[in-house]
C-alpha cells in the first residue's frame, strides 16, 4: 500500500528541503526523500551545499584565512606569533562538525514543520489516479505517492574526459575538501568559482598552486574592471593562474599527477603535482530518478526541462535548483523551492532572476548583482558608472584590508541601478544592500542619500553611489 502525500519532494538539498518546509507551512501533507549518507551510513540532509559545497568550503576558507593572518597580517598589528603550525586533521574535523550541525538543523526543521523524511533513493514508478508513485530504495523499500512532485536532485561535478575522479589524486570538490595533508604542489583545472575558492584554501596553507584555465579571459562573467582588480590580488598572493591553456593527457600514478597542456602561446608544457582538483563545472543529476517511467523530459545537457515557473513537461511535476536551467547557486534553488510551494497552493510565487547575487568567497571577496559594464555596452544601454576604492575607506584601513572597490552602474537617464559590483573585504555581506535596492528599483541617488554608519565598509557603497553623480566626499 503506497503512502499518500499532497507534495513529495525528491532531494533534500537547499532547493528541496526549503520547498518541503514552505509546502508544509502552507498546510500540505509533505514528504521529502533524500539519499545522502554520512560516514556512518545515516542520513545527511542538506545536499551538495551542506555536505560537500557551500558550508564545508566556507569552513575551510575561514580556517585557512586565520592561518594566513596569523602568519602574515598579525605582525602589522604588533602581534608576534612563534612556532605557527597547522593541524590539518583538526581543521577537517572542525569542518565536519560544522557540516553536522547543519545536517542536524534540517532534521530539527523537518520535525518542527511535520515534514515526513524518507532516507533512500527516490525514483518514478508510474502515474496513478492519486498522482505519481515513487519508490524509495533505502535500508528498506517503500512506495509513496504524491499529488504534486518537486524534483530537486541537484548536480554532480563534471569530470575531465579521460581523467575520472579517483578522489585520491584527481579530486572533485568532494575530495578537495578532504585532503589529509597540505599538498606540496597542487593543480586546479578551471579557474571558476570552485577553482578560486579551493585554490585559495590550499595556497594559504602552504601549497604551491597552479590553475589551468581554458578561456583566455579571467572570470568572464564578472565585470571586467572587478575581475582585473581581483586577478591583480591573486597574482600578488602567488596563485599562478594560466589562461588560454589546452589541457591534454592527465596521468595519475603513485607519485601524483602529471598534466600535459599547451599554454596560451601554443607551447607544450608539463606540470607534475601531488594532487589535482578538477573544477570545470557541474552537470545536472537525474541518476536513478527513472524519469523515463513517466515521460519526464530532459534537455541535451541532462537538465530537466522547465518553464519560467519551474513547471516540467508533466502536470503537477515541478523541478528546481541545479537540476534545471539557470545559475547553480544554493539561494537560487531555495527561492525556486519557495516559489513552487506557493504556486502549488495557488499563490503567485516569484523569482527575480535579475537580482540573484553572486559571491566568490576568496580574499578579496568578489560579489555582484545585476548587469556588468560589458553587458550594458553590448546591449547599447546608456549608463553612468561610479566607483569608490576601499583604500579611501576608514574602516578598511583600520581592518588592514584596503584591496578593491565598489562599482555602481546606473541608467544614464533615470539613474536606476542596473548593476553593482564589488571586490574587497566582506563584500559578501555588503552586496545585500545592492540587492534590496535593485528589488525596489532604487536609483543610485537613493543609496547616496541614505545614512550609512561610520566607520563601516558600507560607506564605500554609499560613496560609489555618490560617484555615479561625480560627487564622492572622501575621494
Ligand atoms: P543539491 O544540493 O545537489 O541537493 C540534491 C540532493 O538530492 C542531494 O542530497 C542528493 O543526494 C539528493 N538526490 C539526488 N537524486 C536523488 C534521488 N533520486 N533520490 C533521493 N535523493 C536524491 N552555492 C552558493 O550559493 N554559495 C556557495 O558558497 C556555494 N559554494 C559551493 C561550493 C562547492 C564546492 C560546490 C560544489 C557548490 C557550491 N555552491 C554554492 C552551489 C550549491 O551547492 C548548489 O547550487 C546547491 O547545492 C543546489 O541545491 P539543490 O537543492 O538544487 O541540489
Ligand atoms: P565554473 O563554471 O564556475 O568554472 C569552470 C571553469 O572551468 C570555467 O572558467 C571554464 O572555462 C573552465 N573549464 C571548463 N572546461 C575546461 C577545461 N577542459 N580545461 C580548462 N578549463 C576548463 O565551475 P566550478 O568552479 O566547477 O563550479 C561549479 C558551480 O558551482 C559554479 O558555477 C557555481 O554555480 C557553484 N559554486 C558556487 C560558489 C559560490 O557561490 N561561492 C562556490 C563554488 C561553486
Describe the structure.
This protein is an alpha/beta fold. The chain has helices at 14-25, 47-52, 54-76, 88-113, 173-176, 193-204, 224-237, 330-344, 373-379, 394-399, 427-439, 444-448, 458-468, and strands at residues 3-10, 30-34, 116-119, 121-128, 131-137, 141-151, 155-157, 170-171, 185-189, 208-212, 240-242, 246-253, 256-262, 268-273, 275-278, 282-284, 317-319, 358-360, 365-370, 383-389, 405-411, 417-424. The protein folds into three domains: 3-157 and 283-351, FAD/NAD(P)-binding domain (3-Layer(bba) Sandwich), CATH 3.50.50; 170-280, FAD/NAD(P)-binding domain (3-Layer(bba) Sandwich); 356-468, Enolase-like, domain 1 (2-Layer Sandwich). The chain is built from 13 helices and 22 strands. The strands form five sheets. Strands 1, 2, 3, 4, 5, 6 and 17 form a seven-stranded mixed sheet that branches. The chain has a five-stranded parallel sheet with strand order 8-15-9-10-11. A five-stranded antiparallel sheet has the order 18-19-22-21-20, with helices on both faces. The model has no long low-confidence stretch (mean pLDDT 97). Residues 10-16, 33-36, 47-49, 53-54, 57, 121-123, 152-155, 173, 194, 285, 288-289, 321-322, 328-331, 333 line the site of flavin-adenine dinucleotide (FAD). Residues 10-16, 33-36, 47-49, 53-54, 57, 121-123, 152-155, 173, 194, 285, 288-289, 321-322, 328-331, 333 line the site of flavin-adenine dinucleotide.
